[in-house]
Amino acid sequence: MIALVIVMTVVLVAIVIAASLLVRSARTDAAAAQQRADQALEKLRTAEKDHQKALIERGKAAARSSRSTFDGHVAENAFPYAAEHGYHPKDIVHVGGNIDFLVFDGLFEIRQGTRKPEELTIVLADVKYGSSALTREQSAVLAAMNDGRTRGEYWRARENNGQLIYQPRTQPARPRPEKIVIDSRRVPVDSHEEIKNVRESARDTEAPD
């Protein structure tokens, strides 16, 4: 009987010890799991903060880009009326694409009769705002212009059997009657009729196109 009691006691103690070890192990695993969960939650919060920060920075960058684009358009549209270049606004034609403007420097004065046709200068002009730089294509276009790698073309369109045919033509320099270049600001009022007659006579003697 005593032996049975001793055996049962030993078994009970062993069960208690095993249960204690299991509880301790479970607590350790639970603590480790909680620690991993806390770390994951912290990473998630950090990632969310970084994401919000990135969204804010992206919004600011988009706003800066939009403002820069807007300012660039304003600068481009105001260019024909700027005093720095000295061109007449009516001589400036907006082209767009690779180059912003084509400038026929002196064309307005030629129309007015105050400048000779051979004094016309053709300019390619591009407008950049702030720190913007020329693209590779724009640099190539301006370099070709400045290096003299340019030409003027003249095409004649005709209809042939219901289709348009384009033929290249040349525009050689040909002698024309000498025209009197007049600055209307320096001509007396009573001389305008005489000047008009001279112009009409010169125009009548020009060779037809």
Briefly, what is this?
With 209 residues, the protein is an alpha+beta fold. The chain contains four helices and five strands, in the order αββαβαββα.
Structural notes for this entry:
The chain has 209 residues and is an alpha+beta fold. The chain has a domain at 82-195. The protein is built from four helices and five strands. The strands form two sheets. A three-stranded antiparallel β-sheet has the order 1-2-3. Strands 4-5 form a two-stranded antiparallel sheet. The longest helix is centred in the N-terminal third of the chain and has 77 residues, at 2-78. It is rod-shaped, with a radius of gyration of 43 Å.
Please provide the count of β strands: 5
**Which sequence of SSEs, written as H and E, runs from N to C?**
HEEHEHEEH
Low-confidence segments = 179-192, 201-209
Mean pLDDT: 80
The percent of residues in helical segments reads 40-55%
Strand content: 5-15%
Q: What features would you highlight for this structure?
A:
alpha+beta, rod-shaped, 5 strands, two-stranded antiparallel sheet, 4 helices, 51% helix, 209 residues
